[in-house]
Amino acid sequence: MDNIYLIDALNVTGGLLAIVLYAVDVLEKEPAIDPKELVEKIQTMVPKSRLAFVPGSLEFLKAGGRVSNMAYLGGALLKIKPALN
To answer: Which residue positions does the secretion signal occupy (predicted)?
Structure first.
């Protein structure tokens, strides 16, 4: 178990993918890197990784309880879409 390291990426989907791709890039450039050093480099990227998106509609946010009925109605009428991160 000495060669297993846990890293909390504080992200899912796209944010996590960016961190994984960074780790792959580091490993390709430095194949003999010490695992602890690799973990440290990855952990420096965690606070810099964020995922943001604009939903196509508010339907799923309303269905999931993320927006109220009033916010849904107002957003739909005014064609306002929130940027989520």
So the answer is: none
